[in-house]
Amino acid sequence: MDIGIFSINLKNNFAALLKSINIVKFRCIHCGLCCRLGGPRLTTFDIKILENTGYDSKLFLNPLKETKKTYKGKKAMQGILKSKLNGECIFLKRNPNSEKYFCSIYEHRPILCRLYPFDWELIKTENEHIIILLKLLSSCLGINVKNGEPVDALFLRKYLADSINKLFRITNLT
User: Fold this and answer.
1) Less packed terminus of the chain by CB within 10 Å, N or C?
2) What is the pLDDT of residues 104-137, one digit of tens each?
3) Cβ within 8 Å of residue 82, ≥6 positions away
4) Residue 120 and residue 134 in contact, taking contact as beta carbons nearer than 8 Å
5) pTM for the whole thing?
């Protein structure tokens, strides 16, 4: 579901809503659906963050074959976060007192996890500006929940701009 076209300036981390297509709300409801689909692809940045936190890459990283290291047509990914035997991300935990799930590395989670449930498509770049089409993955149960936050330019700056900027710098999309 396309939700808007945004401009991001890499120099000052500024995000502006150029055009809103659909007004939606989002809030994670901790259902774990996204993480039960397996771990995401990891950038070199993601791997270093987890290693600096004390995790051994042999325990969390499945390397990718050279032909699989692209993301959106750009070479960026170095591996995939390992999954449990049941397919869940190895860092997904279930709260024993409720039906809620949580990420045991939430503060250090990979860039693609930070962006979920959003996907994007690069439309064009000009100088330091990136124009992207932001898409919402409709399988997420946190879309349009009653207490969700409107997905607007403020939401983008608050939750997504930093991760998008890191991903664009890593993949040299500009």
Assistant:
1) N
2) 999 999 988 988 888 777 666 666 666 677 777 8
3) 39, 59, 60, 61, 62, 90
4) yes
5) 0.76
